[in-house]
User: Fold this.
Amino acid sequence: MSVKEESRFPKTRIQGKTLGKTAATDEAAADERAAPVTLPQGLAALDRYDVLLLGELQRDARQSNAELAAAIGLSAAPTWRRVKRLEQIGVITGYRAEIDRRRIGLGVLAFVRVDTERDNAESMRALEAAIRELPEVIACHYISGAGTFELQVLVTDLDAYSRWTMDTLFKLPNVKDLHTSFSLGEIKSSAALPLGHLMPGDGRRGSN
Assistant:
């Protein structure tokens, strides 16, 4: 995305002094109007402007700072500062391109349940580290019930998946068995997180 530096924001001259355009006024007004959302301990304190910003950035992270400011109803300077704060406190962790996997030849999405021996901590840590290094694995979760891990795996075709499991996955430490399901059609795929729970009084707002 393109978020411009604060020094590039429009300036206005008032009584011989150069000031950022309505930045202090808008920021003070925003703080008065938008009370922080009360969240469990350890979570970031966000007000409704922060939530609106997150929704806009999830929708299109390439928006300019001016476009973001117009979308959430603030001027440029406080909008820029809010984005930087969200980055600094770790709410925003990065900006990435969304790629159509089919257009680059990754036609098979597999959901793989991995069975392991759970009572060997050292082998489990070694397996976790090995899984993190596999580019074909786009997500991995510990799961309840049967199995230990659930992987999401992208490969070009079924033959490539078969070779990958035999040459790579089965050779990882502590892997006992695999159970695979394949996606037959994608109904929804989105990296955008729901934000409605952060908007006080209206769970339907701010989701994207």
